[in-house]
C-alpha cells in the first residue's frame, strides 16, 4: 500500500489545544518513548537477550499515543498483540513493561505474559490480547460494569486492527454494544495489513467506517499518523460514546516494522516502507511544533534525550532484574 | 430467624438453581445474570422464570444470539468488579465461544501476573436423552477440566445444585456449571435456609463396602438404582458423587476405593478420552492401587455423536444396564 499522504505536517482544528504545552510535550515524549521502546526491544532480541516473539508497532505511534492520551485516566482500554504503544500512552510504566519483555519478576505480569500481554489495572489497561478481535467482547464487558455501577463519565475502549475487523467477535460486539447502548469506543487502528495480507485482499468493501452503518452506530475517521488529529478525533468520539453510546473510530496508519520476528518482508517493497517512513508521525509532530513556534529545537532535542534515557534505564533495570522464583510457577492459576 | 431451622421442602433442580441465583443477587449487587432469552421467556429450560420481574432488565439481561460477545462481555465485566452469571442455553454452544472461555477467562489471572480475577459462572445445560440430536446433547466437561484456570461443577441433585451454585457465584474464578437437562424437573429436599457446598468436595451418596461407583451428574441416579438392585443380592455398592471435577476431591476417590477395593467409573460423556480416564489413572497412581482386587472399569457413551433416533440415542448413551454389567464383571 503506497503512501498517499500528502500532508507532512499536522492538522489541528481546535487551536486552543496548542496552548496546552504540557499536553503537547506529553504526547511528543510518549511517542518518542514508544518508538525507542520498540527499537530497544528489537536490539535486545538481536542480542539474544529476549526470547519468544514480539509485534512491534513502529510507525503507529500517533495512533496509539494520541488515542490513549485523549482518554480519561480511569477509562478502560484493551489492547492487541501489538499493544506496547497504546499501553505506554495510557500510562503503563516502561520499566515494568521492559522487564515483562524479558520475563522478569519485576515485569507488569511478573514474567507470565510477555510482549503480548501488557496490563496495568490501575491505569485501566485491561491487558494486551494475543487473540485477534478478542478485545471487543471484553471491552463490552468492562462497559457493562460501568453501566451497572452507574458510572456515566468513563468509557471502555477496544483497540483492534483492520485484520481483526473481519473477526466475528468484533461484529458481534459492535452489535451487542449498540443493542445494549454500552459506553464502548471501538478503536480500529488500520495499518493496511493483517500480517501480510493487504486489507483489499481481505474484504471487498475497504471503507472501514462503513462497518458502523450495519450496527446503527456513528463512525469517526482520522489520519492516524497525525497525533493531533488522533487526539482530537478520539476526544470527539469519546464525547459521543458518553452521550449516545458506542461508536467506531478508524485511524489510518502504517506499521513500518515487520509483523513479528517471523516477518521476512516478502509482501511489500522497501520503497513502500520508505514512503511511509517519510511521514513518520514523530517527525511530523516535531516539525509541526517547530514550524508553529511552539517548541524550540533544543526542546525537541531534550524530549528526545529524555525518552532515550528513560528507555536505556528501563533496559538496564530489566536486564538486572531477577527471574520469577520457580517455586511460584503455579501462583495465579487460581485466585 | 436465628436458632430456628427452616423446614426442608421438595423443589426441582431448576428451582434450586433459580433460588441460588436469586439469593446471591439479593445479597450482592455486583452479581447479575445474562444470557439468551432468560428474561420474560425465563430461559430455554424455564430456570429463570420470574427473575426479571424481581431484578429488572439491568440485572437480568437478555442478549443477542452472540455467544462470543456475551460470554466475552461476562469476562470483561468480571475483571472489572462484577460477578456475572452467564447462561449458555446448551453446553454445545460453548464451542461457539471457546476462545472467550479458554483463551480469555481461563488465562487472565495467570497471564496478567495475578493482577486480575475472573469471578464468573457460566451456567449451561448439558447432556443427552432428550432427542435433541448431535448439536444439543453433548457432555463436554472433560474439555474444560483440561484447562487450568477453570473450575468445573456438575451437580446431580437439587440440594447440591443450590449449594454448589452459591459457592460458584462467590468463587473468584471462572466456574463452568454444567446442569443436567434431564434433571431439571427432578425434585429433591432443599432447605429453605441459606447454605453452601464447597467446590472440590465429593459426596458419598450411598455407602458400601464391596465396590465403588465413582460418578457425577445424571449417571449418579442410574448408579443409585443399580446399587439398590444389587443390594437385594447382598452386594454392597458405594456411590461416590464427585460433584466438582475441577478441583477434584482425590482423597474421597482414593479412600473409597481403598475401602471397597473395586472401582467402576461412570459418566454420560464419551468414554474414550473422557474424565473417567483421569480418575482411573489417579487411582492407579495412588496407594489405592495396591488394594485393588479387580481391574478398574469405565462406563461412558460410545465413541459417536449423539443420534436423534431414540433407540439409537439410548444405544450410544450409557444406561443402568451397562453400569450393572460393568459392576457384575468385577464384583
Please give the most extensive interface between any two protein chains, plus how many residues each contributes. Answer: A-B, 47 and 46 residues
Placed side by side, the strands forming the largest sheet of chain B appear as 3-2-4-5-7-6-12
Total count of helical runs of at least 4 residues of chain B: 12
* Number of DSSP E strands of chain B: 14
Per the CATH scheme, the topology name of the largest domain in chain B is Rossmann fold
Q: Give the name of the CATH architecture of the largest domain in chain B.
A: 3-Layer(aba) Sandwich
Superfamily at the CATH H level of chain A? Thiamin diphosphate (ThDP)-binding fold, Pyr/PP domains
Secondary-structure-derived class of chain B:
alpha/beta
Task: Give structural attributes.
heterodimer; A: 335 residues; alpha/beta; Rossmann fold; 11% strand; globular; B: 331 residues; 2 domains; five-stranded mixed beta sheet; 12 helices; 14 strands
Report what the structure shows.
The complex is a heterodimer of chains A (335) and B (331). Chain A is of the alpha/beta class and 335 residues long. Chain A has a single domain, classed as Rossmann fold (3-Layer(aba) Sandwich). Chain A has 11 helices and 8 strands. In chain A, helix 8 links the parallel strand 7 and strand 8. The longest helix of chain A has 26 residues. Chain A is globular, with a radius of gyration of 19 Å. The model of chain A has no long low-confidence stretch (mean pLDDT 95). Chain B has 331 residues and is α/β, with parallel strands linked by helices. Chain B folds into 2 domains: 184 residues, Thiamin diphosphate (ThDP)-binding fold, Pyr/PP domains (Rossmann fold); 128 residues, Rossmann fold. Helices cover 34% and strands 22% of the residues of chain B. Chain B has a 7-stranded mixed sheet, sandwiched between helices. The longest helix of chain B is centred in the first third of the chain and has 15 residues. The radius of gyration of chain B is 20 Å and the shape is globular. The model of chain B has no long low-confidence stretch (mean pLDDT 97). Chains A and B meet through helix 5 and helix 6 of A and helix 3, helix 4 and helix 5 of B.
Amino acid at each position: 500500500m503506497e503512501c498517499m499522504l500528502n500532508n507532512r505536517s499536522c492538522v489541528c482544528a481546535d487551536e486552543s489545544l496548542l496552548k496546552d504545552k504540557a499536553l503537547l510535550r506529553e504526547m511528543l515524549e510518549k511517542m518518542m518513548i514508544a518508538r525507542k521502546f520498540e527499537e530497544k526491544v528489537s536490539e535486545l532480541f538481536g542480542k539474544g537477550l529476549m526470547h519468544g516473539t514480539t509485534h512491534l508497532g513502529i510507525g503507529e505511534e500517533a495512533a496509539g499515543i494520541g488515542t490513549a492520551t485523549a482518554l480519561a485516566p480511569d477509562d478502560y482500554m484493551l489492547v492487541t498483540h501489538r499493544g506496547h504503544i497504546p499501553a505506554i500512552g495510557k500510562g503503563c510504566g516502561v520499566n515494568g513493561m521492559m522487564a515483562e519483555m524479558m520475563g522478569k519478576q519485576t515485569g507488569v505480569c511478573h514474567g507470565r505474559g510477555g510482549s503480548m500481554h501488557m496490563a496495568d489495572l490501575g491505569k485501566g489497561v485491561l491487558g494486551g490480547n494475543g487473540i485477534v478481535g478478542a478485545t471487543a467482547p471484553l471491552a463490552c464487558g468492562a462497559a457493562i460494569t460501568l453501566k451497572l455501577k452507574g458510572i456515566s463519565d468513563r468509557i471502555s475502549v477496544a483497540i483492534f486492527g483492520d485484520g481483526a475487523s473481519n473477526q466475528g467477535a468484533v461484529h458481534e460486539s459492535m452489535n451487542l454494544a449498540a443493542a445494549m447502548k454500552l459506553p464502548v469506543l471501538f478503536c480500529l487502528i488500520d495499518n493496511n495489513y493483517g500480517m501480510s495480507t493487504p486489507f483489499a485482499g481481505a474484504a471487498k468493501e475497504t471503507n472501514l467506517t462503513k462497518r458502523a452503518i450495519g450496527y446503527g452506530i456513528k463512525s469517526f475517521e482520522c489520519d492516524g499518523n497525525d497525533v493531533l488529529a488522533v487526539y482530537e478525533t478520539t476526544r470527539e468520539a469519546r464525547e459521543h460514546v458518553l452521550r449516545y453510546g458506542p461508536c467506531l473510530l478508524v485511524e489510518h496508519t502504517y506499521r513500518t516494522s515487520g509483523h513479528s520476528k517471523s516477518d521476512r518482508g516478502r509482501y511489500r517493497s522497501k520503497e513502500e516502507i520508505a514512503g511511509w517512513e517519510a511521514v513518520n508521525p514523530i517527525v511530523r509532530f516535531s516539525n509541526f511544533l517547530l514550524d508553529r513556534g511552539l517548541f524550540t529545537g533544543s526542546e525537541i532535542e531534550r524530549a528526545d534525550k529524555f525518552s532515550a534515557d528513560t528507555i536505556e534505564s528501563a533496559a538496564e533495570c530489566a536486564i538486572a532484574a531477577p527471574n520469577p522464583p520457580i517455586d511460584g510457577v503455579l501462583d495465579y492459576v487460581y485466585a | 430467624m436465628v436458632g430456628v431451622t427452616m423446614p426442608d421442602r421438595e423443589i426441582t433442580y431448576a428451582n434450586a438453581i433459580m433460588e441460588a441465583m436469586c439469593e446471591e443477587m439479593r445479597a450482592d449487587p455486583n452479581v447479575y445474570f445474562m444470557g439468551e432469552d432468560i428474561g420474560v421467556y425465563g430461559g430455554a429450560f424455564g430456570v429463570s422464570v420470574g427473575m426479571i420481574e424481581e431484578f429488572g432488565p439491568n440485572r437480568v439481561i437478555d442478549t443477542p444470539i452472540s455467544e462470543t460477545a456475551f460470554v466475552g462481555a461476562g469476562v470483561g465485566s468480571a475483571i472489572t468488579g462484577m460477578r456475572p452469571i452467564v447462561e449458555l442455553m446448551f453446553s454445545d454452544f460453548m464451542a461457539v465461544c471457546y476462545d472467550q472461555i479458554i483463551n480469555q477467562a481461563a488465562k487472565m489471572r495467570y497471564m496478567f501476573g495475578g493482577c486480575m480475577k475472573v469471578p464468573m459462572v457460566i451456567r449451561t445445560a448439558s447432556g443427552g436423552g432428550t432427542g435433541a440430536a448431535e448439536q444439543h446433547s453433548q457432555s463436554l466437561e472433560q474439555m474444560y477440566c483440561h484447562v487450568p484456570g477453570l473450575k468445573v461443577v456438575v451437580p446431580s441433585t437439587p440440594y447440591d445444585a443450590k449449594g454448589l451454585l452459591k459457592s460458584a457465584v462467590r468463587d473468584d474464578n471462572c466456574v463452568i456449571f454444567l446442569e443436567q437437562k434431564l434433571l431439571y424437573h427432578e425434585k429433591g429436599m432443599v432447605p429453605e435456609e441459606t447454605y453452601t457446598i464447597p467446590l472440590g468436595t465429593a459426596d458419598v451418596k450411598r455407602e458400601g463396602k464391596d465396590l465403588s461407583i465413582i460418578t457425577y451428574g445424571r449417571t449418579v441416579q442410574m448408579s443409585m438404582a443399580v446399587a439398590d438392585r444389587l443390594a437385594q443380592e447382598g452386594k454392597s455398592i458405594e456411590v461416590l458423587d464427585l460433584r466438582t471435577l475441577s478441583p477434584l476431591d482425590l482423597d474421597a476417590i482414593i479412600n473409597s476405593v481403598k475401602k471397597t477395593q473395586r472401582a467402576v467409573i461412570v459418566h454420560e460423556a464419551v468414554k474414550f478420552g473422557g474424565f473417567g480416564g483421569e480418575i482411573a489413572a489417579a487411582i492407579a497412581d495412588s496407594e489405592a492401587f495396591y488394594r485393588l482386587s479387580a481391574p478398574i472399569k469405565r462406563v461412558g457413551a460410545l465413541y459417536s455423536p449423539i443420534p436423534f433416533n431414540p433407540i439409537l440415542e439410548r444405544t450410544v448413551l450409557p444406561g443402568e444396564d451397562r453400569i450393572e454389567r460393568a459392576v457384575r464383571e468385577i464384583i
